Amino acid sequence: MKITDMSDCCFYCERNINKCKKKIKVWKELQSKKYSAARLRTDRTVPKSHGIYCIRTVDGEVLYIGYSNSNVRKRLLAHCMGYDKQAIGKYLKGKDLSGFLLSWVVERKAECLEEQFIEFAKQQQGVRPKFNMKRGRSCRTTEE
């Protein structure tokens, strides 16, 4: 029997998601970075590569977890400057960005990690991130 449920197992090692060392390491790295959203336009620290990112308040509440297959910086700019039509972009448009923190991790299979990190955030704060309205992608195919 092959593992097919992405919510319970890691796609790297096929262990239970809460016991996967790689996933825990990436989650800790994502949570440890604290980059002010107000600096996003002028500072070039955010990478122009694929990865997963997190937008949260300075109080630590995770508002949104997303990924980019090509350019994390461009996605964050779209959200923070209100260029996109997603709820997080509409929420942040016109707000003082100094009240928000960004973090990111360069990761190849970011789309696979998105839903799992949304679940981690849900465990951490008791509710899903406010602006993650749809479920993330699953990279596991159903096989029997």
Task: Present the secondary structure layout.
Blueprint: H1 21-32, E1 35-36, E2 51-57, E3 62-68, H2 72-81, H3 87-92, E4 100-105, H4 110-125
Antiparallel strand pairs: 1-4, 2-3, 2-4
Organism: Mytilus galloprovincialis
InterPro entries: GIY-YIG_endonuc, GIY-YIG_endonuc_sf
Protein name: GIY-YIG domain-containing protein
Features:
alpha+beta, disordered N terminus, 144 residues, GIY-YIG endonuclease, four-stranded antiparallel beta sheet
Summarize the structure.
The chain is α+β, with helices and mostly antiparallel strands and 144 residues long.
Write up this protein.
- With 144 residues, the protein is of the alpha+beta class.
- The chain has a domain at 34-125: GIY-YIG endonuclease, CATH 3.40.1440.
- It has four helices and four strands; from the N terminus they run αβββααβα.
- Strands 1-4-2-3 form a four-stranded antiparallel beta sheet, sandwiched between helices.
- β2 and β3 form a beta hairpin.
**How many runs of DSSP E, i.e. beta strands?**
4
Q: Distance between termini?
A: 7 Å
Strand content: 15-25%
Share of residues in helices: 25-40%
- CATH architectural name of the domain at 34-125: 3-Layer(aba) Sandwich
- Strand arrangement in the largest pleated sheet: 1-4-2-3
Structural class: alpha+beta
Radius of gyration: 15 Å
Secondary-structure element sequence?
Answer: HEEEHHEH
Shape: globular
CATH topology of the domain at 34-125: GIY-YIG endonuclease
Contiguous uncertain segments of 5+ residues:
1-6
CATH superfamily placement of the domain at 34-125: GIY-YIG endonuclease
Helical run tally: 4
